[in-house]
Amino acid sequence: MNLYIVSLLLVEEEPSNTLLQNILGVFVTVGIVSICIYYVLRYLESIYVKYNKKPYFIHLYFTLKKLPLHLQAFLDANDFYASLDKKRKRYFAHRTVRFLENTRFVGREGLVVDDFMRMQVTIMVTQLTFGMRHYLLEYLNTIVLYPTSFYSILNKTENIGEFNPISKALALSWKDFQKGNLHLDKGKSLGVHEITHAIHYNSIKNNNISCEIFYDTFLLLEKYLGAEEIRKKIVESKILRDYAYTDKFEFIAVLVEVFMESPKELKKQFPEIYYYVVQMFNFRYFED
Fold it and tell me: Is the full-model pTM beyond 0.90?
């Protein structure tokens, strides 16, 4: 009799699965499966990149955002945007909106930042990252514009441009930015230079597929440039200004300036280096 009562008590004490527990179980299972699928696909894409030198895809959006008409006019006036087909133009406009939504613009020393200024910087960032799937840079959420050169508290020097990853800010002299943007500075582009620094730093700190491609290709480029004969040829060609030889970060920033300003010249003189840059940014729009 005692054994019978004990057995009944044990049965009553066994926890039964409630509806909430079942739902939580489903969510946990779906979550675990989703994570496994993500890492499998991520691994497979890494293999794909190894052989094809580009990601599975670049553009995938649930909805496409549109610029207001008064801002769209700035895009329409841009040469790179004008060269795109209709589908890519919609993607470019969407990315422009997203960057504007996620970036704060600040004027210094009395400079009032207007729509024209915001759009010129935004268009340049969007162009440089247009071949990348992950185009919003984690370490860039503020653009600081000065009328001309400014004193850098960080470096204790007078600068025309500076990327500060700690404050996630890019500081630019508007005068010098415009000189490069209008191709008035002998092939130099302050905007391209400093934005490349931001992209480079972002690629070191993140491991998404765009960052992986950029950084891994940069390492391959470094290895290629390790040959004394190649380095000598580059120096003698004078295709890069002297500032490129300050360090490896300045080298890639100056190289990308040349790539964006004079792609045909770079491709003609140094096709291998040209294609390394193409692969780093997945920027194949000069090839169309």
Answer: no
